[in-house]
Specification:
This protein is an alpha+beta fold. Helices cover 22% and strands 29% of the residues. The chain contains five helices and ten strands. Strands 1, 2, 3, 4, 5, 6, 7, 8, 9 and 10 form a ten-stranded mixed β-sheet that branches.
Length: 251
């Protein structure tokens, strides 16, 4: 009997990170997105799938456009993969696109950039319906100084000062392609696009900009923090629940 040839599937997923200890599989007792995906794929294919993700989101961080890929010899037709996968996933993880990719496609290494958004609720009282997805921030903020500070961070820099201790990457240099701050009603929306993000980098940038908005850090000091390349030099790390991976871009 001939062995069935494997295909490489690229799957775009969304998940509510509230009840997850992050994307990446961890120790026993820790619920992760990767674990739930691999359990679902085992049910569908009978295979212990080797799954790759575009990025590893932290505990409490959400995604609307996370991308994964895996090779499978399963017999499910491509047109049936989407409903089949969603039928075995938990309600806080949803696949919304399944494509056959080239054999050598790699969700992480071939990603050109990732876009994250951070949502901030600016009013005196919290919102029960947005509490898991939007940081309630009742303090007065000056947005223009925050935008001035943000301008010092865009471009290719060493972001060591905006990387949490414990990160084991080879280099802390990244290209921050975009850092926008927009007001939408009672929300403040931060959009960050980079060729890659260091551990907690996006949340540390947001936390630092919030300190600028409150007048605790002058806008020009953000450049000095960046240039210091000193871990821990940046402002506080913003809580995870306001952050969402919205898109991964490929060629």
């Amino acid at each position: 009997m001939m062995k069935r040839e494997k295909i490489n599937l690229k799957v775009t997923i969304a998940y509510d990170g509230t009840e997850f200890a992050g994307f990446q599989r961890q120790g026993a007792g820790e619920r992760t997105v990767q674990e739930e995906l691999e359990k679902a794929l085992l049910k569908l294919t009978g295979e212990n799938v080797n799954l790759t993700a575009a990025g590893r989101t932290d505990a409490g961080v959400h995604a609307r456009g996370q991308v994964i890929n895996f090779h499978t010899a399963g017999k499910i037709p491509l047109s049936r993969w989407l409903p089949a996968l969603n039928s075995v996933l938990p309600r806080d993880v949803v696949a919304w696109r399944v494509e056959e990719a080239p054999e050598d496609f790699h969700a992480r290494y071939q990603a050109k950039s990732k876009i994250y958004q951070y949502r901030l609720l600016r009013r005196p009282w919290p919102d029960v319906f947005r509490r898991h997805y939007c940081l309630h921030y009742p303090y007065a903020l000056q947005v223009e100084p925050m935008k001035e500070a943000a301008s010092h961070l865009t471009g290719y820099h060493d972001f060591a000062a905006f990387s949490a201790i414990g990160s084991g990457v080879k280099t802390t240099k990244r290209n921050l392609l975009r850092l926008e701050i927009e007001e939408h009603g009672d929300e403040l929306l931060f959009t960050l696009e980079a060729d890659g993000f260091l551990y907690k980098m996006a949340r540390m940038i947001v936390g630092t900009l919030l300190m600028v908005g409150r007048g605790k850090i002058p806008p020009e000091e953000v450049k000095s923090i960046l240039d210091s390349r000193k871990k821990g030099a940046a402002g506080p790390t913003a809580p995870p629940h306001g952050l969402c991976l919205v898109r991964v871009l490929y060629d």
